Amino acid sequence: xxxxxxxxxxxxxxxxxxxxxxxxxxxxxxxxxxxxxxxxxxxxxxxxxxxxxxxxxxxxxxxxxxxxxxxxxxxxxxxxxxxxxxxxxxxxxxxxxxxxxxxxxxxxxxxxxxxxxxxxxxxxxxxxxxxxxxxxxxxxxxxxxxxxxxxxxxxxxxxxxxxxxxxxxxxxxxxxxxxxxxxxxxxxxxxxxxxxxxxxxxxxxxxxxxxxxxxxxxxxxxxxxxxxxxxxxxxxxxxxxxxxxxxxxxxxxxxxxxxxxxxxxxxxxxxxxxxxxxxxxxxxxxxxxxxxxxxxxxxxxxxxxxxxxxxxxxxxxxxxxxxxxxxxxxxxxxxxxxxxxxxxxxxxxxxxxxxxxxxxxxxxxxxxxxxxxxxxxxxxxxxxxxxxxxxxxxxxxxxxxxxxxxxxxxxxxxxxxxxxxxxxxxxxxxx
Length: 431
Prior knowledge:
The chain has 16 helices and six strands. The chain has 431 residues and is mainly alpha-helical. Helix 12 crosses helix 14. The two termini are 42 Å apart.
């Protein structure tokens, strides 16, 4: 764990490349390139988080005084998860179990996105909090990773085609969760007269509105608006605008470098599957960071910052002050965009409605989430209730409901159903 993801991920990529029969030199270059891409993505995300984060805090101080539950953000999810016994145990358990499922043909996804094991681990900790039993929590985390592979399998084709990532599956649970909302919402949008005729992706906006439709200019404008709302002076507003615009320009280039390192691994996995697994497909499970550079995702996530603050104040019954997660909307909505066909109007409307659900779910879950931090002896810097806005998702709500009303049997039943459907979809139906 002390190596950190920037060192550990290249090592994992190198080893997997060797296992799939790639030459050591090519595996080494792939690993190093992925590591460089990971550092680049981290730098860009830090630029976004630090720039917007401070401004958002100022905005919260001015407009969010009536909201009493602090959103500390999913950025602490990894340190929280991996500081627990469940977190450490789940690293080898998940890797070994995943390999067994791939060999048996029960899943097509080989997940190497080890950092984002944190969300299934978090679901395990939620189970422990509700049931009061450590071992039940560990079982909950195991069921959660099975859910992760199941969702990655079912969404791989649509996501891969939209982003142009053959052989890659996105295993980021926060991103995968939004798909269950996006699919029915897009079906509704298709049946709204007038609205269903609007077709506006990032390229269309650029053609129609010229320079004002360019994603860099959109980033600049959003940064300036947030700076004004935060009460910055002229220099502060200008710096925030330029740094947000820079993120819009640099992010796709960092993602491209990440993919440059991954593609040889994906190709080797495909060749390995053809030779050793009777032609079965094997997808390499990766972080949603590969998708967030898409213009529609970046534009939509930036617009959600002021929208979410307005929603927090307007929604009756909401008690969450959005703060920590305002810089991470891209990861929550990224996999919804392929199901909206890249349409930025549908994305903005659909994702805004999705954010409404996260406010209510995270308000409801705040006592449980606060208890999870207490279980891990994790200092959140406050004695009041805390939550993570982007943990207010249906998988978390589902685990809480099952554990509350059915105990560990509800979680085990969910795991059995997921395994059964996975076997049917990957083995029986195919045969």
